[in-house]
UniProtKB/TrEMBL annotation:
It comes from Pelotomaculum isophthalicicum JI. Residues 62-280 form the ABC transmembrane type-1 domain. Gene3D superfamilies: MetI-like. This is Phosphate transport system permease protein PstA. Its main location: membrane. PROSITE patterns: ABC_TM1. One of its GO terms (molecular function) is phosphate transmembrane transporter activity. Belongs to the binding-protein-dependent transport system permease family. CysTW subfamily. It is found in: Cell membrane. Keywords: Cell membrane, Membrane, Transmembrane, Transmembrane helix, Transport. GO terms for cellular component: plasma membrane. The keyword Transmembrane applies. GO terms for biological process: phosphate ion transmembrane transport.
Amino acid sequence: MNSRIADRIATLVFWAGALLVIVILGAMIVYILYHGGKYISWDFLIKPPQVVRAGGGIGPQIFNSFYLLFLSMVVTVPVGMLGGIYLAEYARNNKLTEAIRLSIETLNSLPSIVVGLFGLLAFVNMTGWGYSLISGALALTVINLPLMVRITEESIHGVPDSLREASLALGANHWQTICRVVLPSAFPGLVSGAIITSGRVFGEAAALLFTAGMSSPALDFTQWNIFNPASPLNPFRPAETLAVHIWKVNTEGLIPDLRRVADGSAAVLILVVLGFNLAARWLGRKIYRQMTAT
């Protein structure tokens, strides 16, 4: 077998693998949207679920998911960016750096259920917060922080050294070069990484079962005092997210319109996660074109 035939065979194998993944993913998306898309309506998106009679929706679960996403990203993005900047610009090749990278890789490969059990011990029991939004947000931070660090580090490494050298040659110090040259050049990758990380947060369920809880109190959306137990902005209340709601509805089956709520919730979750990923690609390309004038 000559090299040309081997190259064609390898190319066909790679194309076949890629097409197989696309077909499987497309079939799953079409199946979920076909069975759940017909139940999506405005009332379904804003009403709370009904336990006694049919006709409920997923309004509180959607709000809890986005609020939990906000609380988690408030911690994940700045800490992850600072860690990535340190590894990319300041860290030297020594045992400390190797230990940090090993810790990041280990955290990045931990099953989410293990992080949930850690969150149950550290954030739920030891702090006394109980099942709450803040406990779930910190558990999700543990999951997504290694990814944000790696994305920041890789984005900074992608900036040409010539830009750094030009900035230093003009009299800027290292920190000024990072803030005014490196980070703006790496900004498209940082934005894409943050949005992709947000999509992971929205679809997480296992870690939240042990931290944020599997139920939500009756929320009063006219109450904006964050210390009120009925306030939707209270970070110390338990909160059932959309992903947890799908698991709970399918396992317990206590509501009369089980199939409608489960299928509709799954379709909404798929659309939101797809929206995060498509937004990341579109926004990253748009920012890159604006910054490079191409």
